[in-house]
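User: Hi! Is it possible to get a structure for several chains at once, not just one? Here's what I have:
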Amino acid sequence: MNLTPPSEHDIHAYVDGHLDGPRRGEVERYLARHPEQADEVQGWRHDAQQLRTLLAGDVAPAPALDPLRVRARARQRRTVRWATAAGILLCLAVGGIGGWAARGMGTGEAPMADAMQAYRLLALDHGVGMDITTGNESDLRSWLAGRVGPDVRLPDLADAGFRPMGGRLFATDQGPAAMVLYDDGNGHTVSFYVRPPGPARRFLPRGAREDDGLLANYWSEGSHNYAVVTLSDTAGRQAAGRVTGKAI
Amino acid sequence: MSDPHIDDALRTMLPRLRRFALWLARDIHAADDLVQSTVERALARWHTRREEESLRAWLFSIMYRQFIDGKRRANRYAMLLGSLGREEPTWPSAERVAVAYSTLAGFASLPAEQRSLLIWISVEGMSYQEVADILEVPIGTVMSRLSRARRALRQLGEGDPQSPSLRLLK
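Assistant: Yes, the chains can be modeled jointly so their relative placement is included. Here is the combined structure:
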């Protein structure tokens, strides 16, 4: 008689001893007539037994893997993670609040640094590159009023021996600024620089500072910031003193 | 938070978990890391376990998934690094002796899924359905994969002077 071959499932179940009486008999009968397959199945059985024997040995105990210890470690790691997160948050908060508090603080620049830059640009070249070249004070006054603001007061420095040569506009972060350059006919120049305080309305206390051979006197008046810039030599100081005395 | 019943249940499973981990990772250090992360995950997900599910199958399934995920990550890194610096696995001394048996040597060289199948079915005596659930495949697929694994092991063990028993028995 020719038996239908058992299913793959039954063959494995036979190898693994999961097959009960009648079906087990069926598989055995089939294998008895198919020696090649019986061979293979026998081999599988042998391998399974060997694996069981060889792998049965217990590995050395590892107390570190006890659930209690695993719990403790996980807890510890969570704490460290929280602490790290809290630390990062704190840093962000300090940085953010600090940054907000320090906003505009100096903007990294000394007061009226732009006035000194303007002086370097123009006065040292004695007025080359000015937007308006005139000694007429009323022309300069209306030029300033139109560009920077109607209430800008242009000082009259004729008593101090200085006459205006002309002016130039500058773009600053706070808005349009203007510089008027004065000359005493002896090679001394004084610049009069004015700009709006900008949206932050940062007005300046009266002060003076020297930087790289230049002297700047600055103050705020009305709605503008002013600076008078000269060379920081003796003649420059005297001129600046006379100008600021006049300008106030 | 810590429940002594859960801990006890896990503790009794530790030897099996370690054995499976060892043959999965084929390295005692990697194996213990695997057991550690499996226990940790099991503790974190204890409430998601279905009551009727066997604890052993559940833990094996967690471990197997962690191992496969870890290997995938490792492969990605290896690809990024451009080199597969295959490290020599470290065996505990008892196992080092055991590997001398060529059946075990052959077994150790099988792909991870085949090693897992043979441990679950031949050594642990798990049901085909449990294995199908772990691998998330139909039971028929488990059967055909089991055939492939058993044939592969047979082939590697063939000509093995340590296991002439079969030929003698016939």
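The two ends of chain A are 128 Å apart (CA to CA). Chain A has seven helices and seven strands.

User: Great, thank you!
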